[in-house]
Specification:
The protein has 182 residues and is of the alpha+beta class. 21% of the residues lie in helices and 27% in strands. It has helices spanning 28-45, 47-53, 145-157, and strands at residues 60-62, 72-79, 82-96, 100-103, 122-123, 125-131, 137-143, 179-181. The strands form two sheets. Strands 1-2-3-6-7 form a five-stranded antiparallel sheet. It has a three-stranded mixed sheet with strand order 5-4-8, covered by helices on one side.
Length: 182
């Protein structure tokens, strides 16, 4: 079982590396990594398990955050009465809106222990192509909060952390056309 000790922190250079494509069809190791990542996210959302093992709650995790330099992510969360639960191999944003959005309360990350205040501008709508844990192709259209979550995790695969998107001069600057997600 993964715990917070297994999470690579943002002071480690490996989090800034671009991840390599995972092999298809998925190997046993890839499937096991995805299973462990999903278990970690689900455990962190369970108050009793999280307290027992000192886990922080999250809605997603990327393979570089557990020391694997491959393009793998998992997400697991409910939003507007829909469950978003995916184990994805080689996810790629293939299209996005011009319109931007951001979380009004900012973003956080399991790899980042400090608080970073400011708006993280993201695309309001994206389309992601990926493969599931069985190597079957998927195409997922997302908007609003789910789109933000997927962009955050895919950024990890490219060595980008959420605070890289915060405007250093004016952290709470957002275009008037950008929509806040409360």
């Amino acid at each position: 079982m993964l715990t917070m000790k297994d999470i690579v922190r943002d002071d480690q250079a490996s989090l800034r590396e671009k991840s390599i494509d995972a092999t298809l069809p998925p190997t046993k190791q890839t499937k096991e990594a995805l299973d462990k990542m999903m278990e970690f996210i689900i455990n962190g959302q369970d108050e009793d398990i999280a307290e027992k093992y000192n886990l922080r709650a999250g809605v997603g995790v990327a393979a570089p955050q557990i020391g694997i330099n491959e393009r793998l992510i998992v997400v697991h969360f409910d939003y507007e009465d829909k469950l978003y639960s995916y184990k994805l191999i080689n996810p790629k944003i293939i299209s996005h809106s011009v319109e931007l959005t951001y979380l009004a309360n900012g973003e956080g990350c399991l790899s980042v222990d400090e608080d970073y205040e400011g708006y993280v501008l993201r695309y309001a709508r994206i389309t992601v192509k990926a493969f599931n844990e069985n190597g079957e192709p998927l195409k997922i259209r997302l908007k609003g909060y789910p789109a933000v979550v997927f962009q955050h995790e895919i950024d990890h695969l490219n060595g980008i952390l959420f605070y890289d998107h915060i405007n250093e001069v004016n952290p709470f600057m957002a275009p008037e056309s950008a929509k806040a997600i409360e």
